[in-house]
Each structure stands twice: as structure tokens, then as C-alpha cells.
Specification:
It is a single chain. Helices cover 30% and strands 20% of the residues. It is of the alpha/beta class. The longest helix is centred in the first third of the chain and has 28 residues, at 108-135. It starts with a helix and ends with a strand.
Length: 638
């Protein structure tokens, strides 16, 4: 909204007799320094123009963030304490003649993740409450307001982000906007839908040819890694969030019991007690069950889950306590999940970097969780707004041509959403998503198409990799780099010609078709690096060897985008200005250079046929540094 429109809105509001006094409401920033109207979402501001004094709005307050400088140290101390206790118990079991090896092994990385989240939860719960109370002290509100109102109603206070969902009237919104403790006040009316509903909304490209489980799991090499290499997600926690949650106690899921019975009985399929299936349609319930079956389902008529040994925690976007997606995601974080799959969209499909995308970027940045999101179902320039998150892995759908060969897989499906605009390009990666054979009740199959069913394949393949390398559960940039670089023998690969700046990403398919075999190779050979570029460090170099006979080399650089709102620039565009800008350059032994630099992105990729064997040098150059100074990067090379 232009400045004159904002000022006109302010005039309308003040004419209604709303007092906006910093002294009255506890704000500390002056109006001359920051115009409070710049801190109100234009959508919300428009609604306020024609509203009455007592009308209340669903808003989200994005508060100033906490000082988290001591969080990691506290989490490490708690982790070490628990590991010592575990060692003592193990020793005691051995002395008592018990089978110490039968005791459940403690994953130190997983313990650290859960302890770190616990520390964050304590800090955010305390800080959010104190800031809210400071903005809205009850006695001041009654004393200075011209139109006496009740206190704002807190619907949900997040414990993993500096955000509060509340119901507020105009005066309360303006009070919040004037406070130095508030970065933005957003309209919080959101729309949820599964990425590929209704069920008949997508017409398969190959309607006469069904892609059997052996085909689509073969095309990604997921079945090979599961059945031959024995990687099925053991020790990994997966989260699932959409319009329905898989709850075998709910009669609506009675038809799916055989697909999940063993996990349910073993306690490795866990449903959020506040998940709400009351308003879920039959299609939403079926959608949730089939997405889950791709990840962990027991074998049903020849179709079995890719990561069937993983634990699955499932919840809904519409929770019974009104916390919606924030509450659902935070419940998953509280359960210690490592990956979250969302085959759904929030806030529509207009390729807009939305409030939800910003919130998800914050979650991924701070809480050691990999987000895998379906891109959507409407084709070009229609990516789900929530899937525009920089730090997520957004997945599109491709046509596997009903063969397990990767050499004939080239094109995204016509309905797979993508965008190559001014903000960030999506999707990041693709997986088969056309007319897939999926497990459903009895002796029949369900053929489904869409990115909803491509995303859980990527989620499950990441779980396979994390079983092998649990120590990288905390390295989200590394995980994404492995996903992007680990693509081989795919017909649609985009190459980087020597001595050019060419990012090897396609607008419709991203880095290409996910490849569990190639990802396993990178993980097993430890051909990856995770490091932090601190202030003053503007270049980073790494060498790796390319043996004779190699026909493909791929190097991916990714970094996490820290969600930070500079105090001097409180407006909608500020959130787009804080991404670091990094250039990736790979030099061959003969001097050929392969470069990827697109300023708007937070991942770079080069892909080429190596001109000779020998030592190659990766160089990362900081072209622009974000306000916080540090940049956490991940590198992977295939």
C-alpha cells in the first residue's frame, strides 16, 4: 500500500477517536523514528478502514526476537548430563548381568535436538508473555483509552517463535504497532487446502498407464536403498501435517488399519491429541492416509512405505484449540521430529512469500528441522504461498512415463506448480507424481496424481539418509545440498557450461528427480560440509577428488535464510532484504570454471561432465552479508 493510502487510513482511524499515545500504552519507539502504520499488514489495514471501534480481528503479532546466544550451550550441557546418566545406567545393567546392549541406544544428536527445543520453548514462552503484558498493561489500557475496551484475547502464544495469535480491535492493533517490541502486525485469517484436492481435480498425463509401486520407487532408487542397502528410516522421526491426521482410533480411518496396524501397536505412529478430524472430508482423510502410506505404510498389495521403520507423528492444520498450523507445527517440534512433510497449502497458491512462509523459515532456521512441502497443483506461477519458504525443500511432480528408468524422465507434469519470479524459484526438486499406484484398503489400489504424493517420497528418502548419518539431523543446509546435488542419470539434467555463470536448476523441475542412491553415496562418502561463515570471512574453499571415469559432477551450495527484521526498516519489503547472497564457483584441474550465482536465491548448483580427473576446488564467495553477520552454509558434491 502506498504511503498516501496509509496516511489516509490513519486519518480515518484517528477521526474515530482512537488515542494512539506511546506513554499510554507502553511503547518506547517514537513515531518520528518508525511510522506504526508501516508495521501493519496492508490487508489488515484495509479491513480496519471500514470497521467499527469494537470489531475484532484475527491477528498475529510478530514480536522482536529473543536473545538466543546461550541456547546451544544450555542444550549441550543438558545433553551431556543425559548421556552421562545413560552411560551409568548401561554400566549398572552390565554389572547386574543384564543385557546392556538390549537397552535402547541413545542418539546423542537426537537428544541434543530435543534439549535445544526445550530451552527455546522455555525462553519463548516467557519472553512472549512478558512482551505482550508490557504492550497491554491492563491498568493503562483502562486509564487512557477513550473507548474503554477489554484486553486483547490471546488465542495462542507460540513457544518456538516470537509470535502470538490474538483477537484485537483497531485501537489495540495500533497500540501494538507503536510498540518497539512488535516487528509486524499481520492479518491472521488463513485458508487451508490439501495440495491436490479435490481428488478428481487433477487429470493424469498418462491416464491409461498406471505407475506401479516398483516403477515410481524404482525411478527414485528408493526401493533399492530400502531393500538392498537396508535403509528404511530407523531412528528418524517424521512429522505429517495437513487437513486430517492418521488416527486409527477414529472410525473414519477404519479402512486403513491394515496399512498402519504394526506401527500403531508399536507406538511408532502417534496422533496429536489436539488434531481435529471433525471437519475433515472423506477425501482429506484418504489423502492423509495415502501420504502417510508412502512414507511408513506396511506392505499392502505390493505397495510398502519407503521409510517404514521411521516413526510418524501426525497432526492437522486445524487444531481443536484454535492454534491452527502454528500449534500443529509446534506439537511436532515438541515430539522431536527431524523432518516435517506438508502436502497442503496455507494462504492460497499465488507464489507469494507470505506470513506462513516467513514463520516456517524461522522454524527451520532455529529448530533443526527439515521442511518438505508440496509445491501445488495449478501449474505455472501458482506455488502454494506456504511453500515459498526459502529454508524448505519444495517438491514438484514429474512424469516417470510409467517406467523405472530415469533416462526417460524429463518433464514436470502439467499441473505441477512452479515459479521463477522476483522472490525465490520453486520447486527445489521433483519426484514422480503422475497416476501413482498407492495402497488403499482391501485388494484394490488407488491411483493418485499430484505434488502431494511427490513430497512424501522426498521426505522418506531423506529419512533413509538420516538413518545412515544421524549426525546431520541438525544440518538443514547440508541435507538440502545433498538432495540437490544427489541427482544422477536423469534425462532432464540441466548442465553448467565451462566458464559460464549458469545455475543448473530448471524453473519447472528444480535440481531434477530425487535420487536416493546418489544421496546415499554422498552421505556414505561424507562428500558434504556444513560450516558457518562468520563476520569477516568472505570466502570459503574446499577441494575434492574426481576419479577417472566419472561422467557427472554436481556441486550444491545452500544456506539458511535468517528471518530478521531490521529495526530501522519496518515494512512488508524488509523481509525480502535480509537474505545473504553467495556465489558458487568450481574450478577443474585444467582451469575451467563452473559458476552459479543468482542473487535472489539461497541455493546455487553447478552440474557438468568433468573435463579431467583430479582435484577440483570449490570456492564460495560472500557477495552480500545479512544484518546478523553470520551465514550457515551446506555444501555437497557428487
Amino acid at each position: 500500500m502506498k504511503r498516501r493510502s496509509i496516511k489516509r487510513a490513519l486519518s480515518v482511524l484517528t477521526s474515530l477517536g482512537i488515542c494512539i499515545t506511546l506513554f499510554a500504552f507502553g511503547g518506547t519507539a517514537s513515531a518520528e523514528e518508525i511510522d506504526p502504520m508501516d508495521k501493519i499488514d496492508p490487508i489488515l489495514l484495509k479491513k480496519m478502514e471500514n470497521a467499527g471501534d469494537t470489531e475484532r480481528f484475527d491477528v498475529m503479532l510478530w514480536l522482536t526476537d529473543i536473545d538466543d546466544s546461550g541456547v546451544e550451550q544450555q542444550a549441550q550441557a543438558r545433553t551431556q548430563s543425559k548421556m552421562r546418566l545413560y552411560s551409568m545406567k548401561t554400566a549398572a545393567a552390565s554389572l547386574n548381568g543384564e543385557q546392556a546392549e538390549a537397552m535402547a541406544a541413545v542418539d546423542e544428536t537426537q537428544t541434543y535436538i530435543e534439549e535445544k527445543r526445550a530451552v527455546y520453548a522455555e525462553k519463548y514462552a516467557d519472553a512472549n508473555q512478558k512482551k505482550f503484558d508490557d504492550i497491554f498493561p491492563a491498568t493503562r489500557w483502562k486509564l487512557f483509552s477513550r473507548v474503554e475496551q477489554e484486553q486483547p484475547t490471546v488465542v495462542y502464544s507460540c513457544v518456538y517463535a516470537p509470535t502470538i495469535k490474538a483477537k484485537m480491535n483497531k485501537a489495540q492493533i495500533l497500540t501494538a504497532a507503536q510498540s518497539s517490541r512488535v516487528d509486524m502486525v499481520y492479518d491472521d485469517v488463513v485458508h487451508f487446502e490439501n495440495a491436490d484436492l479435490p481428488e478428481d481435480s487433477i487429470q493424469p498425463m498418462n491416464s491409461s498407464t498406471i505407475s506401479s509401486a516398483s516403477v515410481w520407487q524404482g525411478a527414485t532408487n528408493a526401493a533399492l536403498v530400502r531393500d538392498t542397502n537396508g535403509l528404511s528410516g530407523s531412528g528418524v522421526k517424521i512429522g505429517q501435517i495437513e487437513l486430517a491426521a492418521v488416527d486409527l482410533n477414529n472410525p473414519s480411518f477404519s479402512s486403513y488399519v491394515s496399512t498402519f496396524r504394526l506401527q500403531w501397536l508399536a507406538g511408532t505412529l502417534v496422533c496429536d491429541p489436539k488434531a481435529s478430524n471433525n471437519t475433515a472430508s472423506a477425501n482429506s482423510i484418504k489423502h492423509a492416509a495415502q501420504v502417510a502410506s508412502i512414507m511408513i505404510g506396511e506392505e499392502t498389495n505390493g505397495v510398502k512405505g519407503i521409510a517404514r521403520s521411521a516413526e510418524l507423528y501426525t497432526t492437522t492444520l486445524d487444531r481443536s484449540d484454535g492454534s491452527n498450523y502454528q500449534g500443529g507445527y509446534e506439537w511436532l517440534l515438541s515430539q522431536g521430529v527431524n523432518i516435517i512433510n506438508m502436502s497442503a497449502s496455507i494462504e492460497g497458491m499465488t507464489s507469494t512469500y507470505s506470513l506462513t512462509a516467513r514463520w516456517l523459515d524461522h522454524i527451520a532456521m532455529h529448530h533443526d528441522v527439515t521442511l518438505v512441502l508440496a509445491s501445488g497443483k495449478l501449474g505455472g506461477n501458482t506455488v502454494a504461498n506456504s511453500s515459498m519458504a526459502y529454508n524448505a525443500i519444495t517438491v514438484g511432480a514429474l512424469d516417470d512415463r510409467a517406467t523405472s528408468s530415469r533416462s526417460d524422465d524429463e518433464h514436470a507434469t502439467s499441473y505441477s506448480s512452479y515459479v521463477d519470479g522476483s522472490i525465490v524459484s520453486k520447486p527445489d526438486i521433483c519426484a514422480p507424481g503422475d497416476n501413482l499406484q498407492l495402497a488403499i484398503p482391501g485388494s484394490s489400489y488407488g491411483e493418485r496424481s499430484g505434488t502431494s504424493f511427490a513430497a512424501p517420497q522426498v521426505t522418506a528418502i531423506i529419512a533413509q539418509m538420516l538413518q545412515m548419518r544421524p549426525e546431520i539431523k541438525t544440518k538443514q543446509a547440508v541435507i538440502k545440498a545433498i538432495v540437490l546435488s544427489g541427482v544422477s542419470s536423469w534425462k532432464g539434467l540441466k548442465n553448467t557450461p565451462a566458464n559460464t555463470n549458469t545455475r543448473a536448476m530448471d524453473p519447472k523441475t528444480g535440481a531434477g528427480e530425487v535420487d536416493s542412491k546418489a544421496m546415499r553415496y554422498i552421505a556414505q562418502a561424507q562428500r558434504y560440509v556444513g560450516t558457518t561463515l562468520t563476520s569477516g570471512v568472505n570466502t570459503y574453499t574446499k577441494t575434492f577428488n574426481v576419479p577417472a571415469g566419472d561422467t557427472l559432477t554436481r556441486v550444491a551450495l545452500t544456506w539458511l535464510r535468517n528471518i530478521h527484521m531490521p529495526s530501522s526498516n519496518h515494512n512488508q519489503d524488509a523481509q525480502y532484504t535480509t537474505n545473504a547472497k553467495l556465489k558458487l564457483e568450481v574450478t577443474a584441474p585444467g582451469g575451467q570454471k563452473y559458476t552459479s550465482y543468482v542473487a535472489k536465491e539461497n541455493c546455487q548448483l553447478v552440474s557438468f561432465a568433468p573435463p579431467q580427473s583430479g582435484t577440483y576446488t570449490i570456492k564460495v564467495t560472500v557477495m552480500e552479508r545479512p544484518p546478523e553477520g553470520y551465514i550457515y552454509i551446506g555444501l555437497a558434491f557428487y
